């Protein structure tokens, strides 16, 4: 079965850095779980981040005499790193979404541009070209101005799908009106 975790950590603390690979091996399933849960593009970078957090956790450990406590400490370190990365990822995603929302507010219903009959007809034509859930989702986006989460819940789709529909529509509007 191999060496116990607390013995491996003790050897790492004494200077045997090659034993760190054994810890990585033991914690790989948890690392892979957290990497999968993040919706970041760079999975390999995220894996490296978690490995580094393991190394930092081992270097900061003061008590390493029992396996259970060592595994718990390392698990908590990985979980804290996941929460930190998730918050960063969410902030980045929200910032991207707000930039897209700012574009769309330029052509909202309250502004004179929307009152232009041709634009209104073009908008209807674009919406009529879509079918199924996309059409209903676009209708909610354009005329009800609801958040992605609310629309996703109502139509039983993911928030990412709603966001993708929104972005594709924005890109179509950009192509037609801002070239």
From TrEMBL:
An MF annotation (GO) of this entry: DNA-binding transcription factor activity
SUPFAM superfamilies cross-referenced by the UniProt entry: Sigma2 domain of RNA polymerase sigma factors
UniProt-listed GO biological process terms: DNA-templated transcription initiation
Protein name (database record): RNA polymerase sigma factor (Sigma-70 family)
Source organism of this protein record: Lacrimispora xylanisolvens
